[in-house]
């Protein structure tokens, strides 16, 4: 049990002083919608807002406070054993060979497999990749070709065989993300192929007073043409002119008024790979992918269905960012943010003054709302309602907080947030981000994709070191990258080695797998306890594309290396945290210390929660850049400065002017500290 006092103790104060030492070690007419801004606190993604998963779901932990873990540690229930990637290309699939291999795997305690296919190479397979453009070649389809009728017969039979053994069988979509298969099927649907879900915002003219402007517009593609007077080198949204009012029969004719020079911006919608926010995207993805597996199998085959993985989702349709759009976006934005986005669209590409950061944060919030509601959540619901483990290893792997728009918000829609772990070295930040998502949104597991390309000479003691390290970082679902159906006489391998029955240590390997099974069980139960919440820095990158999260990640490394555990906390988890007794209470855990690491742009409710925490006796530490912009008014907001001043004794502007911050204390025992130099 972890017992906490209800007040900031001397011990905690001393610990915070130690933290500081650790972190200093080298190593328009727009009205501020300040309290009408609709900002989700992420509650819709927590178990309380979701249906109960099936009682017999494998590998779903027990979070009861009175759980006795000892029996499960001695003999873990099903669902905590190793689940490797099972590479099927290289030779013809036969039932005889698969049956023999399944017997070996069952005997070693392996509890499932995620079938995988490798991609081809442009130079080695020129015919296969003729006229194809992508980051790598097309899928090597295997024999029989993946998703052919003969392949489905094998899959149906093999899934039933795994189900008889209380094992699972899934697929990872690694090479299927870029060409062919369900993505192309969804793309080809008429309502998706013609969907105008990308917005190109461009400056098309600079005009002197009195200068005429003529432009032909596309009846379907041109969304807005707006002229702005330029004042102090910034466009003035308050006096913008909607040039659609000067359109006649598809052509705009207008002359710039006297008094200043003008800039004209045009926003055009496009249809190429532009359906991410289509209202039925997630539903159709399930229909063409997951539902097909369920439909192609009988009851026996469905018993083995589990352990699917989304791997490196990289098709342009999914890479959310400035310009991501939906046909109903203006209505959705007005409903959620309370103002018309159209005159503010240039702010997504150029600096239009203090309001720029507000517009960018509001825009990305609505984009992510729609991406979750229309794509990620329907897919999650399909898996969650069936009690299945659905893992993820996406681009960025947590190192880029704005990957897919907001990496944290996307990753919470998997039952097993996860990441790649290298054969050598470590993926500390990546695994910490994955485990933090799982902790804060109470997801069953943290998928550790381990350890590709480590080489054939790897010994069990090397594996044990890598396992221990990454389980310490938060992993608890063990997925070895290499299990090969064949070596094809030594001519086939992929990111070697195959860690299984081809290795000389195989007769003893089951004992290592029993060790990882006990660890997986033990470290999945209950709730994670840490004293420090370190804000995951998404907002600064949504405002400034050149922002890097180095200060936050470096702070996390220093804390952990000094023996201080922490959780990366997203702004929505902080927003729903109950603030009392000097602690932030969320997802069954409590945090006396909140760190704002280099957040020049910040969600306003992050600041207000930090202030409440400070006033309730909590500790707030800031590193690097202090907040000077938010989604309340943008930058130069006196309310932001007022809160920052109360917390840290200085504002961002004062720090730039050379002022020195001093610790701030209040009558409740709250402590506010600012550390500018983290080098």
If you had to describe this structure to a student in words, what would you say it looks like?
There is one protein chain. With 679 residues, the protein is α/β, with parallel strands linked by helices. 32% of the residues lie in helices and 17% in strands. It contains 21 helices and 28 strands. The strands form 8 sheets. Strands 19-18-23-25-28-27 form a 6-stranded mixed β-sheet, sandwiched between helices. Strands 4, 6, 7, 8 and 11 form a 5-stranded antiparallel β-sheet that branches. Strand 14, helix 13 and strand 15 form a beta-alpha-beta unit. Helix 3 runs parallel beside helix 4, helix 10 crosses helix 11 and helix 19 packs parallel to helix 20. It is globular. It starts with 9 loop residues before the first helix and ends with a strand. 49% of the residues are buried. The N terminus is likely disordered.
How would you sum up this structure in a few lines?
The chain is α/β, with parallel strands linked by helices and 679 residues long.
